[in-house]
Design goal:
This protein has helices spanning 2-13, 20-27, 32-37, 57-64, 76-85, 122-131, 149-158, 166-179; strands spanning 47-51, 68-73, 91-94, 107-113, 132-146, 183-190, 194-202. The chain is an alpha/beta fold.
Length: 210
């Protein structure tokens, strides 16, 4: 099942990227854009990088609210989709989160919503810390636990929603970021449709990458 899911998501992010919004809306009962908006109040500073910009909806919101936002994604298909959804106004680049093409200390905030497992990779986290200014934030929204019973069953079946207790989930989410020398906390947002787990990881104020 896990191998099939990896293949499904690979196709969804690449050859079938044009169906991404439809699939995301279907599995979230049209709530996923509301979930994404929950990261906006957590963003600090003006220079923001989005890892895995996908179809570009967060990019559109960031630019609307005045942030100097850049998005990076390894999928050329998602890049084309994001440019269309932002009317060509977004600053996008193609690349890997594990090898960010940006100078040290470039961003106040780095954000990622519903990324795949690359976000927990030690190379990704090291690159994020390198590119953040001292005191900068890495914000990750990895999972939403739906309150709808059918959705809960569907997410458990696909492996996209964890079945462990809240404390176990928080510990598992926090561990990779703590190991990467981030000061980390797990925030929970209760919405009518779901419960969101948000990772808030901060680069130490005294740390400056040279």
């Amino acid at each position: 099942m896990s191998a099939l899911l990896r293949l499904f998501f690979k196709l969804l992010y690449h050859q079938f990227a044009f169906t991404y919004d439809l699939v995301a809306a279907a599995v979230s009962f049209n709530r996923w854009k509301d979930w994404i908006r929950e990261v906006l109040p957590l963003i600090e500073g003006t220079r923001t990088l989005e890892l895995g910009h996908g179809p570009g909806h967060l990019q559109r919101l960031l630019r609307r609210d005045g942030w100097l936002a850049i998005g990076i994604d390894e999928s050329a298909q998602m890049g084309r989709l994001a440019r269309r959804n932002t009317s060509g106004s977004a600053h996008l680049t193609r690349g890997l989160a594990e090898y960010l093409p940006f100078p040290n200390n470039s961003f106040d905030t780095i954000v990622s919503t519903f990324p795949t497992e690359y976000i927990f990779d030690s190379h990704t986290l090291a690159e994020a810390r390198r590119c953040l200014l001292p005191g900068g934030r890495l914000i990750v929204l990895p999972v939403a636990m739906p309150k709808n019973r059918f959705l809960d069953w569907l997410y458990k079946f696909t492996g996209e929603s964890p079945a462990e207790s809240e404390d176990v989930i928080k510990t598992k989410l926090k561990e990779p970021f703590t190991k990467a020398n981030f000061v980390t906390e797990i925030l929970i947002r209760d919405l009518p449709s779901s419960r969101l787990f948000i990772i808030l990881a901060r680069k130490d104020h005294a740390e400056k990458t040279s």
